[in-house]
Specification:
4 helices, 5 strands, 37% helix
């Protein structure tokens, strides 16, 4: 009497490779869509954008060596000062409200913080459209 023994055949790795690729692609697309600002600062980012769109800028600062611009905005209702940091090409670097416990939420304290970074008050035309960031 002969008995048949089970011998597993080779499994095709292609479906696993395709599924892994799809998962990585979707995960990468989600991370690319969310900026550093969105991931780190959450709701403050949209509050900052909204403040600049509604109220314009209070002051604009620029870091040295053709560095980023700091668009400061004052929300007249809450008194909050927001800092929208934009690269020279206009892309968004980050956006937030400076920590009031570290800096205090006054324009003098925030100006001193920016000066300590080597930034200077910017006068002139921005090299990008202030209301477009993507």
């Amino acid at each position: 009497m002969t008995t048949a023994t089970f011998q597993p055949g080779r499994r095709n790795p292609l479906p696993l490779i395709i599924m892994t690729g799809v998962v990585l692609f979707i995960g990468g697309a989600i991370l690319m869509a969310a900026s550093h600002a969105d991931l780190k600062h959450g709701r403050e980012v949209q509050d900052t954008r909204d403040c600049v769109q509604r109220n314009g800028t209070l002051q604009i600062w620029r870091e040295p060596n053709k560095g980023p611009f700091h668009l400061l905005c004052l929300d007249p209702i809450t008194g909050t000062i927001y800092d929208w940091i934009r690269n020279p090409d206009g892309s968004e670097r980050t956006a937030f409200s400076p920590n009031p416990f570290k800096l205090g939420n006054t324009i003098n304290n925030i100006s001193n913080w920016l000066r300590a970074k080597g930034a200077t008050l910017f006068k002139g035309q921005l090299p990008f459209d202030m209301l477009k960031w993507r």
